[in-house]
């Protein structure tokens, strides 16, 4: 098999192709390994995944000297990553394993186990292997024994927890990446864990599990006495998102800090237990399917779905009653992993920022927007983000008609606040910033901008 012909033939980016050719020309050992691995791939999807791993790990690594020039893989992910990760399991499960929940019940003896964990992790170790072995030995009683599994290219993580499905396939529950101290080693343990996750699930023998689910796994990244927990899923590619910050596993004279650590590892135990049952009972699909990308909703009418951490149902319905917003079919009463599910009418059209229209059509849309804002302001509601991208335009026999969409920000005048994250590249009205109080004058500012067609 000609390696360079495969690189040219497959659907890789031009930059990746150049980097791969250059890398394999200089590294004959990995070139031989790549040829051997390609021979085990069943189709082009597997071959592309293999080259992606070589690209991220060797040919174009996004660590060391390139940091600052390109974003870390974790920073590149859209906010939808976190939505998908948390929605992969039912809301009751997500809430049950929420380590920030002070009501999370701890098992008998877990506090004593946590004290010993802190003592182990706070020590200074001469070599990484001693720290790694001490952590794995202590966590065996909590999650089960970590094993070492070698990938086809001979690489391996610092430890994994696996489950055998009823059909004999293997699922990855937890993956561990450790550095002896912060700054030691040649990579960030979060990136190491992410790459190990991607490499594990990209192996050809995992193909049937990948076709059966979105491969949820926990990732533990440890640097000295600091731990960060991440979540991973596999859609059309590996997607990784942090669940916690880096938490110090050191003895601090603060009861709240101790209980945070105790709840964290109890949540890890429960989540690993849940994933064990998840994979053990997983129905394996042997035919190609897109179902793993949509693990829970199965039936729908013609509608549009979105997820939001806050949503003003009242404001949406006020506008929908006047056909100034899509009809709202459903807003979940409970949050799914911190997000509401919103289902609304699907409307044919385009947003105002992409519309090519004449003045009459534009004025018709603007008339609808003015009416919608008037209705909201009469009820002391501020829409908040009245940019063209949040205005839908539909064509009908009567001409162009405008609707407001995305009521995520809508809130009570003089009381509710804007989201903490405000895009600094946008020219907002005076007084609008992260966590600022909402005011009707902010909507009027946007109306003026729309009048000027800016």
Automatic annotation (TrEMBL):
Transmembrane segments: none
Highest rank taxon of the organism: Eukaryota
Pfam family, one: Pkinase
Residue ranges of domain Protein kinase in the record: 339-417
GO function terms (MF aspect): ATP binding; protein kinase activity
InterPro entries recorded: Kinase-like_dom_sf, Prot_kinase_dom
Protein name: 11009_t:CDS:1
Organism: Paraglomus brasilianum
């Amino acid at each position: 098999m000609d390696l360079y012909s495969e690189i040219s033939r497959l659907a890789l980016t031009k930059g990746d192709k150049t980097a791969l050719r250059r890398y394999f020309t200089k590294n004959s050992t990995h070139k031989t390994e790549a040829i051997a691995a390609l021979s085990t791939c069943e189709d082009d999807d597997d071959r592309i995944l293999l080259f992606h791993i070589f690209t991220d790990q060797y040919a174009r690594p996004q660590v060391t000297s390139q940091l600052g020039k390109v974003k870390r893989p974790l920073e590149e992910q859209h906010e939808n990553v976190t939505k998908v990760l948390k929605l992969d399991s039912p809301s009751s499960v997500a809430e049950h394993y929420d380590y920030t929940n002070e009501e999370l019940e701890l098992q008998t003896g877990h506090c004593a186990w946590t004290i010993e964990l802190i003592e182990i992790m706070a020590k200074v170790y001469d070599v990484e292997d001693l720290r790694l072995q001490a952590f794995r030995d202590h966590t065996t009683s909590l999650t089960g024994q970590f094993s070492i599994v070698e990938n086809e290219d001979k690489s391996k993580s610092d430890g994994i927890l696996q489950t055998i499905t009823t059909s004999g396939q293997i699922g990855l529950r937890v993956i561990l990446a450790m550095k002896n101290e912060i700054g030691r080693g040649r990579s960030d343990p979060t990136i190491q864990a992410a790459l190990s996750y991607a490499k594990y699930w990209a192996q050809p023998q995992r193909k049937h599990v990948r076709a059966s689910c979105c491969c949820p796994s926990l990732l533990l990244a440890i640097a000295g006495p600091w731990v960060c927990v991440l979540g991973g899923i596999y859609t059309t590619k590996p997607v990784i998102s942090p669940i916690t910050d880096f938490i110090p596993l050191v003895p601090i004279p603060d009861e709240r800090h101790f209980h945070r650590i105790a709840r964290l590892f109890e949540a890890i135990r429960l989540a690993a237990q849940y994933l064990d049952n998840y994979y053990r009972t997983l129905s394996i699909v042997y035919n190609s399917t897109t179902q793993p990308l949509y693990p829970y909703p199965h039936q729908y009418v013609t509608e549009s779905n979105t997820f939001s951490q806050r949503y003003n149902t009242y404001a949406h319905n006020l506008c929908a009653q006047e056909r100034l917003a899509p009809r709202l079919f459903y807003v979940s009463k409970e949050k799914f992993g911190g997000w509401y599910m919103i289902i609304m009418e699907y409307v044919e059209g385009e947003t105002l920022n992409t519309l090519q229209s004449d003045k009459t059509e534009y004025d018709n849309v603007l008339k609808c927007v003015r009416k919608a804002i008037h209705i909201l302001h009469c009820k002391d509601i501020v829409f908040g983000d009245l940019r063209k991208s949040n205005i839908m335009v539909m064509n009908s026999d009567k001409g162009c008609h405008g609707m407001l969409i995305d009521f995520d920000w809508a809130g009570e005048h003089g009381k509710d606040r804007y989201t903490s994250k405000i895009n600094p590249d946008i020219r907002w009205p005076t007084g609008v910033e992260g966590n600022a109080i909402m005011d009707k004058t902010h909507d009027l500012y946007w109306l003026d901008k729309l009048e000027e067609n800016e």
